[in-house]
Design a protein that fits this description.
The protein has helices spanning 11-27, 51-66, 94-110, 136-142; strands at residues 2-7, 32-33, 41-48, 71-81, 85-92, 124-128, 150-152, 154-161, 171-179. By secondary structure, the chain is of the alpha+beta class. The structure holds adenosine-2'-monophosphate (2AM).
């Protein structure tokens, strides 16, 4: 199954961001907006994972979660990866989030999964671009957003069902959760 590991903002933080992004979203229906109920901060994308690797991974991730403390975070402003991805920025205990991501990636590697070696850049994907649509004005329109602080208290393993959501987007299913308890 296709898996990734993430932390998720609580409903209040999602609602603030949804409200702040609503006008921008209406002004840019040409972008492929992600659904608020699926908003998350990816720590590691694992791709296809078979049952044996998943069992190994589960044990290692449970251990990793227990070594990290809950993380106070806030969502703020926006950024982009070229004209491909529009995201909102993460502030607060970003150093701790990076340490958690490094632990998760190390656990995945020890479970013999191929994890990308790119530097981890904390972000929450709001929309994916469309050919010929510039994201800079959209980033500018969201620049003033400043969400409340919330605390990430849990680590989730999420299964992505490709094409199973509305309009053939993916559907996400949380298949395991552990408290951050370090
Ligand atoms: P994102 O973190 O930029 O939003 C599920 O697909 C999640 O894993 C998404 O949040 C997605 O991008 C992230 N992800 C990271 N690398 C990916 C990859 N190579 N393919 C698909 N999703 C990836």
């Amino acid at each position: 199954m296709r898996l990734f590991v993430a932390v998720t903002p609580p409903p209040e933080a999602v609602e603030e961001l949804r409200a702040a992004a609503a006008a921008v979203r209406s002004a840019h229906p040409d972008l492929r907006w992600t659904r608020p109920e699926q908003w998350h901060l990816t720590l590691a994308f694992l791709g296809e994972v078979d049952d044996r690797a998943r069992a190994d991974l589960t044990v290692r991730l449970a251990r990793a979660a227990g070594r990290h403390p809950p993380l106070p975070l806030a969502l703020q402003g926006a950024g982009r990866f070229g004209d491909r991805v529009l995201w909102t920025r993460v502030t607060g205990e970003v150093a701790g989030l990076k340490r958690l991501a490094a632990s998760v990636q190390a656990a995945a590697r020890r479970a013999r999964l191929a994890v990308e070696d790119r530097p981890y850049r904390p972000h929450l994907t709001l929309a994916r671009g469309r050919e010929g649509v510039a994201l800079r004005p959209v980033v500018d329109a969201l620049a003033g957003f400043s969400g409340s602080t919330w605390t990430a208290t849990e680590l989730h393993v999420v299964r992505s069902h490709l094409g199973a959501g509305p309009d053939r987007t993916s559907r996400h299913e949380v298949i395991a959760t552990w408290p951050l308890a370090g």
